[in-house]
Fold this protein.
Amino acid sequence: MKVKLLWAHFLPDLDKKINEFIQDKRIIDIKFTEVVSDDYVTGDWSALVMYEEKRNRHLQQKKFNLSEGEDPNEFMKNHDVVNVSTLRDEGWDELITVVTYEDGENNDKN
């Protein structure tokens, strides 16, 4: 998570700054306040934007048959895993683990 502090003298200006800044971000939260000076004079406005950079996600899945001894752990160590599900195929009495991961240039953590 990252943060960015924005401020302006007028609310419409702060709105514009916020909207421009958040266009390509995934927003977690925005905290908004009126800035008060030491002599209790108001007039400036600020916003703390908590965000993450958006990523282009291309999701892929890989299946591992646990009943045949396939182990997904090494694969998961080297990929950006999003989800892991283990399913039991009633008809074949097999355990299958499905690993959903981000596919892209930065998959490998090594």
